[in-house]
Amino acid sequence: MKSNMLNLSPRKPGEKRGSEGCKMNPALWIALVSSIITLILSLPFIKWIEIINSEALYKSFKLLPSSIEKLAPKYNIYNILSFVYETRQGSIGLYAMLLLLLTAATLYMHGLFIFRIFKKKKFTPGNISVYFGAKCAAVFTFVLSLGTIGYIPFSNSRFKMAGFALSPVVYIILLLSIISYIAIKIADVKERKYYREPGFFTEFRRNWILFLMLLPTFIFFMINAYLPMIGVYFGFTAFNFRDGLWASPFVGFKNFEHLFKADLFKLTRNTILYNLVFIGVGNVLQVIFAIFVSHITVRWLKRVSQTLMFMPYFVSFVILKVLVYNLFQYETGSINSLLVSLGMERIDFYNTPAYWPFLITLFYLWKNLGYGMVVYLATITGISDEYYEAAKIDGANIFQQIRYITLPHVKPTFIILLLYALGSIMKGQFELFYQLVGTNGLLYNITDIFDTYVYRISTTQPLNIGIGTAAGLYQAIFGFVTIMVTNYFVKKRNEDFALF
Distance between CA 403 and CA 194 in Å, rounded? Predict the structure, then answer.
């Protein structure tokens, strides 16, 4: 019986692997049709959840007639949060938000898989990456369907009555995901055998010790990085200690509205501009000073130079505040005292915003220059002396050696550190800004960043965890988008310099 799978016959002598053309595998057709149907059934006008016993349900919430009119008889994953918002039932809000995020990830997986299918001009052997995309889409759909099915008894248990019912659409999507995964898995196993590429479980059996060594790292990041992400839900609730995180009233995007009212543009502008200067000027100066130190031939002078440049990093920000205050204070500051002794007018630094971008940048560079220089100095130290000796033989002077040998070797480190720093471009140096500026309202327009704003509203107003979380979420999303876009362009230019 002739197989409909990919051509798995042995290659002929001199024939290149993957050069033979063939039709798209039936398993991929099944996965493609399943993805298209799933996307159609996930459109906003297809309702997944239905309200039953609405009169008794709304009565138990003690809703006003105006609120009841805003509620719909049926919902989908996209607008179920509107039900949570109108009824203020925070106990089901986190679950609904997780379903929404899972829906977005599922649609992305299906869209990416369909894009890969239509982008592929010829289906030759070697479609393991396409199969992997299809399996990811099927798994996400399966988890989303089960999560939606579980949402019904979960919500009803919170209401202590049958308030929600499930649409048959969810079961159809669940069945499609199972069929798609099984079909792709069968085709994937055969192709992996053909190319002798082991699957995950085979790889795990072979190298289980290496996987075991990864377990502590996995646990560390799960506890310290991923589980705390659930706290993002604070940003969408009016948190109070009586109800706790899981039952506090759901308020939607009201906490984010406070950020817009607080001049979001000004906070974003200040935070980004300061960080761009810190990252750009800081890294350039660190490279320059690392090159200077690396060319010092006297050993004791080299050690003293490194120590003196590294020492400011250990200076406390509180001590830095004392130093800055004694330098720039209007009446008794050292600079104003010197100006008066020279017959000049005093400068009111603390009431003149124009000085502070330069002062803040100056003290940031002074404090962090030596610490950041260490990485570049290690890179320069690792460059083989043979390069410099060959350059000297060819008649290259010191500047030509730096230009054609040192800088090209430092470039990969510079780009990687730049990408790491851009991920935190929306996070300011809170200790630096707060200690130097404090609560001086005259300087807020030019020195206020997200971190100082969040701290100020948290201490001058009743504890508002929601606004602080909303600001942190905005910073995280902005940083994520920045690093993804930057990494994309770096990878397009030179793949070796990209983070991933």
Answer: 50
First vs last C-alpha separation in the chain: 44
HSE of 491, CA atoms in CB hemisphere, 13 A: 9
Place of tokens 């935070």: 271
Supply the mean pLDDT for the chain: 83
Question: How much is the average pLDDT of 56-73?
Answer: 67
Helices 26-41 + 93-119 axis angle, to 10: 140
Beta strands (DSSP E) in 38-182 are 49-51, 74-75, 164-166
Beta bridge partners of 51: 164
Instruction: Give the count of alpha carbons within 13 A of 496, CB side only.
Output: 5
Q: Answer for the pair 491, 470: CB distance below 8 angstroms, yes or no.
A: no
Q: Is 199 or 152 the better-scoring residue by pLDDT?
A: 152
Tell me the one-letter amino acid at 433: F
Nearest to 456 by CA among 472, 434, 474, 435: 434
- 343 vs 327: CA distance, rounded Å: 18
Model confidence, pTM:
0.72
Over 50: is that where the pLDDT of 130 sits?
yes
**CA gap 225, 5 in Å, rounded:** 43
> Rounded to an integer, what distance in angstroms lies between the CA atom of residue 465 and that of residue 471?
10
CA–CA separation, 385 and 320 (whole Å): 40
**pLDDT of res. 139:** 94
Distance CA 32, CA 24 (A): 11
156 Cβ neighbours under 8 A, 6+ residues apart: 162, 163, 164
Identify the residue whose tokens are 């997200």.
Answer: 450
Give the mean pLDDT of 220-239.
84
Question: Are the C-beta atoms of 425 and 272 separated by less than 8 Å?
Answer: yes
Sheet holding 164-166: strands in order across? Answer: 74-75, 49-51, 164-166
Own/partner pairs, 394-397, CB within 8 angstroms, 24+ separation: none
**Distances in Å between the alpha carbon of 246 and those of 59, 105, 233, 381, 473?**
22, 23, 9, 54, 18
Separation CA 191–CA 128 (nearest Å):
7
pLDDT for 9: 42
Would you say 279 and 418 are in contact if contact means Cβ atoms under 8 Å apart?
yes
Q: Tokens 């969810």 appear where? A: 170
Q: By the 8 A CB rule, do 138 and 181 touch?
A: yes
| CA-CA-CA-CA torsion sign (57, 147, 111, 84) | positive
Domains of the chain as residue ranges with CATH: 26-197 (no CATH), 259-497 (1.10.3720.10)
Distance CA 351, CA 344 (A): 18
pLDDT digits (tens, 9 = 90+) for 351-397: 889 999 999 999 999 999 988 898 999 999 888 889 888 998 888 88
- pLDDT(264) > 90: no
Residue 185 is given by DSSP the state H
